[in-house]
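User: I'm writing a tutorial on reading structure tokens. Could you give me a worked example: one chain, its sequence, then its tokens, then a sentence or two explaining what the tokens reveal?
Assistant: Sure. Here is the example chain.
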Amino acid sequence: MRDSETAFNNAINKGLMTKPEDYMYMYSKTFANGLIHDVFKHRETRHYETVKIEPEMPDFNKAINYDVLDTMSLKDLNKLDKILSKIDY
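And here are its predicted structure tokens:
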């Protein structure tokens, strides 16, 4: 289960929820196609609404060990560059 504040912020930022006070966050669900949605229930109508959760992109700056990069050869750096250029982010 996700933090409800994060779920509400996702829905509000996408413009899909203009009155968050009218909804309750229920849970997050992974569908058969692998997509994850937050599920909200309207307080009065009890109608359920789902909002897609976009996958979070990793922060590569936090993942890079710059001490290791400093010790890599130019050949290894070129290999790494080719690998990273294939990542669609």
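What the tokens reveal: Residues 4-52 form one domain. The two ends are 26 Å apart (CA to CA).
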